Amino acid sequence: MSGKNRYKILIHGLLILLVLVLAFPVVYALITSTLSFQASYTYPPRLIPGNQFLANAAIAWHRIKLGRLLFNTWLISIVVALAKIILSLLAAFAYTHFKFRGRGLLFPMCMITQMLPLPVRIVPTFQLMASFDWINSYYALTIPFFASTTGILLFRQFFMTVPRDLSDAARVDGAGPMRYFLQILVPVSKTNIAALFVIEFIFMWSQYLWPLIVITTGEMRVVQIGVKMLLASEQIAPEWNVIMAGTVMAMLPPLMILILFRKSFTQGIAMQSQK
Amino acid sequence: MQEERFPGYKWLPYLLVAPSIAVIVIFLVVPFVQSVRGSFFISTPFGTKTIYVGLRNYIRLFSSPDYQNSILTTLAFSAFVIIIGLSISLGIAQLLNQKIRGLGFYQVALIWTYALSPAIAGVIWALMFAPATGLVPYIVSRLSGGYVLNWMTNGRIALLVVAAAATWKMLGYNIVFLLAGLQNVPNALMEAARVDGAGPWKAFWRITFPMLSPTTTFLLFVNMLYAFFQVFGLIDIMTRGGPGNATEILVYKLYRDGFIHLNTGSASAQSFVVFFVISIAAITQLRIATRKAIYAR
Predict the structure, then answer these.
(1) Which tens digit of pLDDT belongs to each residue from B12-56?
(2) Is there a domain that residue A159 lies in?
């Protein structure tokens, strides 16, 4: 018995060690963000936090207009995540509840779409933005991302498990398909909706290559590019304390979203790998 | 399985799929087709004229030492991220695959680096490896008795550091998925194997590993997309493809040729090359997934 208990304690010990090792780089970044410039250059490097975070954050904030960049990134991440949810809910509803010509094409189309990430079509997509006059606009940062095959496949799989009785009952009660969709199907999908929201919010928040090429003005930038600017504005000795203060502010929102929706997220991703 | 639940609505389903289809066609399919077409043309400086050149962009590409180097770099980089990353994750997941309390807590405590962008992971690792003043060079110097680690001047080490940073970001995500997959392997199967005298090594390869294959094929594909494309921000922040072109993976070279050197013909050809690789991987993944479905019946 004690052998088994000892094994359990060992496993917990290993897990905690693993969590700490994985977290260490971020902890080190947090510590650096609280140091003064001089303290960030002491040798050997120190692992004791200082009290300069707010001062560093203020410098980073002004240097790259971080407030504006955070606003931009929040806006595009929320808009894209919501649009992807709505569009894929609708498509999955059609796919699982109706018979129509061409329905068989939807699944292969999703598969093909997964093979078309931005880099395999980047030049014409950029030229399309230029021809729409969308360079340096929120349109370029949002609309091309609106379709979500992940979402369509996720909701398709979930809708197939919803018992037929529900739609039959709705029909007997005289409810049309859209009423059934809005009042029954969407509410029962809320775990999947929350999971997709987390995935797509993080996906959009992390976008780097696309904003790098379609945005050229300072006010329209996203925070990822802001971090690049902070790093690039270095003189001979990078101000790691300021860079890290900016980095911390840039990484907090998606972390908050992940922690807020952690239950739905872990349930949703478990479903994703078994499609 | 998928029957009609609301008969008599002729146009509604088309209306429902229309927005998704429109976005996919306008922003994905059409640009992709244009990109393939563009790979057979070159444009004059200032983009005033395009000239049909047949396969010349491809021939130039594959005979260019820079591109050959980029292919090798991508192979080394993605092999590290995918194979080493997934092997470490599988080892750890297997070790942790016990009935443990607080699994939900550990899941979140491991998976949160998923919420960090590749660029952010890159800045943090650049800090840790900062030449002369960073924590890792300090530790290396102490342990080796004075070795000066400057990864920014040594291509091999730079590639290793960039790959390690990229792997680190995905580690928690991979572990959580594999752990979930392992916990789905029925205990009865393992018991039966034990009764039949299979050792843990044999039981792992004969039972656990095949049972895990939906999860591993999924993760292989996700990690491949990550190592091929999403790490762009990490590379741009940490090395910009350098030193020299030691960390210039395909997506980075594609960006540079297309958007810095404005050689759109070559960039389009490079797009098609990466599409080709990705589609082979996707088709393989799909075939394995469907074969498993039949096998399970």
Answers:
(1) 999 999 999 999 999 999 999 999 999 999 887 666 778 899 899
(2) yes
Across the interface, of B6, B23, B117, the residue whose CB is closest to A208 is: B117
The answer, for A46 touching chain B at a CB cutoff of 8 Å, is no
Q: Which of A12, A25, A209 sits opposite B125 (nearest CB)?
A: A25
Report the CATH number that the domain containing residue A77 is assigned in CATH: 1.10.3720.10
Residues 142-171 of A with CB under 8 A from B: 143-144, 146-148, 152, 160, 164, 167-168, 171
> pLDDT value at position A123?
95
SS3 A251: helix
Q: What are the structural domains, with CATH classification, of chain B?
A: 54-296 (1.10.3720.10)
Q: Report the predicted TM-score, pTM, of the whole model to 2 decimal places.
A: 0.93
Structure tokens at A114: 């997964």
Whole-number Å distance between alpha carbons of B60 and A208? 29
A270–chain B Cβ distance below 8 A for any pair:
yes
Q: Is A210 on the interface with B (CB under 8 A)?
A: no
Q: Is A26 on the interface with B (CB under 8 A)?
A: yes
Domain count, chain A: 1
pLDDT tens, residue by residue, B181-236: 888 888 788 788 878 888 888 888 888 888 888 889 889 999 999 999 999 999 99
**DSSP conformation class of B213:** H
Most B CBs within 10 Å, among A69, A123, A204, A263, to test the B interface: A123
Residues sharing a CB contact under 8 Å with residue A24, sequence separation 6 or more, in sequence order: none
Considering the domain boundaries, does residue A24 fall inside one?
no
Q: Is A23 exposed, middle or buried (0-12, 13-18, 19+ CB in 10 A)?
A: middle
Q: How many CB pairs under 8 A join A and B?
A: 279
For A169, name the nearest residue in chain B, comparing CA atoms only: B5
Q: Does any domain span residue A42? A: no
Q: Nearest chain A Cα to B135, which residue?
A: A45
* Amino acid found at A193: I
Tally Cβ neighbours within 10 Å of residue A142: 18
The boundaries of the domain holding residue A268 are 65-272
**How much is the ipTM here?**
0.92
Phi/psi of residue B104, each to 5°? -60, -40
